[in-house]
Amino acid sequence: MFNYHTLQKRYKKSIFLLLAFLITVQTFAQLSIEDCYEKAMANYPLVRQYDLIEQTRNYSLSNIGKTWLPQIQLSAKASYQSDVTKIPIDFSQVSFPQPIEMKIPELNKDQYGATVEMSQTLWDGGFSSANSKTVKANIDTEKAELDVSLYALKERVNQLFFGILLCDALIEQNRLFQDELQQKFDHINALVKSGLANQADVNAVKAEQLKAKQTFTQIAHNRKANLQMLAAFIGEKLDENISLKKPEITYLLSKEISRPELSLYDSRLVSIDAARNELKAGLMPRIGLFFTVGYGNPGLNMLKNDFSAYYIGGIRLTWNIGNLYTFKNSQNLLNSNRNAISIQRETFMFNTSLSRSSKENEIDKYREMLKLDDEIISLQSSVKLSVESKVNGGTAGVNDLIHEIIAEELAKQNKILHEIEMLQAIYSLKFIVN
Fold it and tell me: Quick one: how many helices (H) and strands (E) in the chain?
């Protein structure tokens, strides 16, 4: 028999389990640095400029294509002139075999006219084709410039991401340090009862506990600030307890530099070549058809003093040889720009190689330091245990033990710092190279 209340209970239980599963998944989900790169670039306001650049490309190419459509021009005029054309012959003084009465009408000094001209380009010397290539090359250059601007986000994400990882590692180490201080505090209290320590020793340990709590507070606030900035970059609200995925220490990079700046320099060179072809096309003549319809007084018949309609059609050749005056200078200007881009590219490669070499040395430095960190921590732990035994035997003071505990803590913090710094250096090298 159908039981509504039983079904409702099962439904609520299923919803509860589903929510618990989603919360668990969210809790254990980790945010990787690659995710941050992708989200930061998608969220950055400048990325919307890609669509604007593409729209500019489409509009510009559409305008160039429309230059091949028939062009229509409408013109009208009304004028008054001080004199008109006259035939300088007095027919009354001319002898004819038979008398002829001849009178040539005089044109009006006020004249009117309206024309509609339609023209169609047949050949433009390759200018529209060259202009289209120039537009495409310039658009590609704008996109490459935008790629360079967005690529710089990676370095900013690196700083925030590894800053948070460092805070996480230091917070965890601080917790362990506070636990150890609490154990020593309880142990010193026991020694006070046995007469091997006094209240000053207890206070000394208590002071170190308070300093450790201060350090924890400082690190926690630094982590919160970095997390808020990272959330702003990727456009997502990040929970304070979110876990960042620590990258593995891998150091395998291509020796070839493939930064977006190189694509930008290539695009600029292509733009210069396109401008050169457009400049050459500007020297060529233009050939087209034209057809003109007019109505005016006078019309084409200048001797007819009346309004009349007319038309003219034909083929037209135009050649602006004035472009030859500036052609050589324009060519030299393009050559100068090309040489400047080559110098910029060479300078960029030089500086990038220097930065790469410096970063590789930095990574090697941290690698060597990490090898020594483990040995230093081991030795400091050994010294701490030895001093602790002396304190228990009454041959050493609590201050000596505190000194060694702090020394061991600093050694552990140095290892954490060196490990995160090496990771950041590796990803900075990736940013430098590709």
Answer: 9, 6
CA distance 114 to 296: 6
| Strand order across the beta sheet in which 308-318 lies | 71-80, 110-123, 286-297, 308-318
**What is the percent of the chain where pLDDT is above 70?**
88
Helix, strand, coil abundance in the chain, percent, nearest 5: 70, 10, 20
**Mean pLDDT score of the chain:** 86
Which residue, 419, 20, 27, 91, is CA-closest to 240? 27
Q: How far apart are the C-alpha atoms of 81 and 85, rounded to whole Å?
A: 11
121 contacts: CB under 8 Å, gap ≥ 6: 67, 68, 71, 286, 287, 288
What pTM was computed for the model?
A: 0.78
pLDDT at residue 305, as a whole number? 81
Cα–Cα distance for residue pair 397/196, rounded to 1 Å: 9
**In what helix (H) or strand (E) does residue 41 lie, and over which residues does it extend?**
helix 33-43
What letter represents residue 256's amino acid? E
Q: What is the mean pLDDT of residues 130-138?
A: 94
**Cα–Cα distance list, 370 to 225, 232, 364, 365, 415 (Å):** 28, 34, 10, 9, 6
Q: How far is CA 230 from CA 166, 295, 372, in A?
A: 14, 73, 33
Whether 132 contacts 64, CB under 8 Å? yes
**Residue 77, Cβ neighbours under 10 Å: how many?**
10
Whether the CB-CB separation of 274 and 157 falls below 8 Å is answered with no
- Work out the average pLDDT over 99-112: 72
Kindly report the backbone phi and psi dihedral angles of residue 417, in degrees, each rounded to the nearest multiple of 5, phi listed first: -60, -45
Q: Is the confidence at residue 178, as pLDDT, over 70?
A: yes
CATH 1.20.1600.10 fits 37-68+127-283+324-433, yes or no: yes
Least confident of 11-25, 61-75, 284-298, 392-406: 11-25
239: left (phi over 0), alpha (psi -120 to 50) or beta: beta
What is the total residue count of the chain? 434
The listed CATH number (2.20.25, 3.30.1490, 2.20.200, 2.60.120) that belongs to domain 70-123+285-318: 2.20.200
